[in-house]
Amino acid sequence: MAKSKGLKRFWGEMFFYESEGSGVPLLFLHGTGCDSTDWDLVISELPREQRYITLDFRGHGQSTTPIEPFTIDCLADDVLNLIYALDVQEIVLVGHSLGGMVAMEAARRDTRVAALVLLEGWTCLSVTSSAFDAGRFYGSLPNETIKEIQRKAGMTRERFKESVWGSFWGSVRDFDGWRFLENARIPIYEVYGEMGRHESTEELLRIPSNPSIHVRWVPGSGHYLPHERPVAVAEICVNLIP
């Protein structure tokens, strides 16, 4: 039977969900203002026997909202603590946006991470404003879905004290995954929506030349790949499992 519960931490309780299944599990990490339910469409496309785990970051979804400042490094700590608590020896991290950045930091620290799928998981957040042409953020999503994404993001932001959010978001802005990506020896898929791509996009995304990194462009898509192209995302995830 699948399990969902909270992992007690010093800052509160972190909600996670663990499915039944076998083999190397997939751990899905959502973006800023999202939560574990944003992976539902992708999960529905996985093979029935595939083991997977989802979680809600601090202050997102069903997890506790922290009252003390924290950073992106703390989110990586939470990911690794969950892996240890579940006694997982090998895992594939699948991260969207913020989740991709957290996945890089977790993989940098621990060899239990066997592979990464980074869905617009930025090497450095500061480049994103010029890496693509304007107007591609929500891709071709219907208005109802866009409104729900915006509603959830707004409600999440309102949960935090200004000082707590400021500390967190400052650490996200300062994140730079270049050195990790340059030296990585695990399989990594960097996946981007192709909408808004221009002649300087790949340079601005700062993806190192590394034979372990494979870049995939998804046609007709913007930033929200788990919503826009769940079949393609699920296929990439399953193909990366050792």
Overview of the structural elements:
The protein has 242 residues and is an alpha/beta fold. It contains 10 helices and 8 strands. The chain has helices at 40-43, 72-85, 98-109, 128-131, 143-158, 162-174, 178-183, 201-204, 225-228, 230-240, and strands spanning 3-9, 12-18, 22-29, 50-55, 91-96, 113-119, 188-193, 213-218. α2 packs across α3. The chain is globular. The two termini are 24 Å apart.
Describe the protein's topology.
Blueprint: E1 3-9, E2 12-18, E3 22-29, H1 40-43, E4 50-55, H2 72-85, E5 91-96, H3 98-109, E6 113-119, H4 128-131, H5 143-158, H6 162-174, H7 178-183, E7 188-193, H8 201-204, E8 213-218, H9 225-228, H10 230-240
Parallel strand pairs: 3-4, 3-5, 5-6, 6-7, 7-8
Antiparallel strand pairs: 1-2, 2-4
Helix pairs in contact: 2-3
Entry keywords:
242 residues; alpha/beta; 8-stranded mixed beta sheet; globular
| Average pLDDT over all residues | 95
What is the total tally of β strands? 8
In terms of structural class, how would the helical and strand content be classed?
A: alpha/beta
Radius of gyration (Å): 17 Å
Q: How far is the first residue's CA from the last residue's CA? A: 24 Å
Strand order of the biggest β-sheet: 1-2-4-3-5-6-7-8
